[in-house]
Design goal:
Largest sheet: none
Number of helices: 4
Order of helices and strands: HHHH
Length: about 120
Amino acid sequence: MLQGHRDLRVFQLAYKLAMRIFDESKTFPREERYSLTDQIRRSSRSVATNIAEGFRKRQYPNMFVSKLADSDGEATETQVWLDFARDCGYLAQKSYEELTAGYLEVGKMLGSMLAHPEKFTPQ
């Protein structure tokens, strides 16, 4: 029985990934502070926050779906920032692969939720 957004596996994974990105981005160059570092942190955190917001609004199916779609979009944006971080030499290949795999999993979970939002609406 789901008590709140923290019970959702997709939220747990998104939060874990955002924290990993926070840690990894501490080593990015200072000149990337207001571009890459800020953007990747913001988009990765938005994945989890949109899931939480959507879960709270799940009694309104359209709002729930909209927030999940926003979360999926933020996950995709985060993947692009990961591409930049790797290609600029700021992120090790292994970390890149692990984070990218995590966001692919988040995308699959969100896709399943978007396809069947009725499974999450309050009874």
